[in-house]
């Protein structure tokens, strides 16, 4: 008898990471159909997808290897903070690197 996938199982979380990534990437894709203000290229979608997938998989790795504790929380917050800082830099260039989108 096969066991059902539970909310906490690794396979379900990987599928959830992929589904959330696709959902987030569909927002600018849909917006591009209705307005000319959103102009993403294939490079933009690839970069955003890689950033979201790598963040999701890094979080999955931490969840699998560190069961509980303060260290797990600190690492998860650090991963999310890195995601937001990189996303902001690529979007508007808050640090002025050559990778900035503005």
Automatic annotation (TrEMBL):
The chain crosses the membrane at residues 12-34, 40-62, 74-96. The keyword Membrane applies. Keywords: Membrane, Transmembrane, Transmembrane helix. It comes from the Bacteria. This is Uncharacterized protein. It comes from Pedobacter miscanthi.
């Amino acid at each position: 008898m096969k066991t059902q996938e539970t909310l906490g199982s690794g396979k379900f979380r990987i599928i959830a990471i992929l589904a959330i990534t696709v959902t987030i990437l569909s927002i600018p894709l849909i917006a591009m159909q209705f307005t000319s203000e959103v102009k993403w290229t294939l490079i933009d979608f690839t970069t955003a997808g890689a950033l979201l997938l790598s963040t999701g998989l890094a979080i999955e790795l931490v969840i699998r290897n560190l069961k509980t504790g303060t260290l797990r929380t600190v690492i998860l917050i650090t991963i999310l903070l890195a995601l937001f800082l990189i996303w902001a830099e690529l979007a508007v260039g808050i640090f002025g690197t050559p990778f900035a989108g503005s």
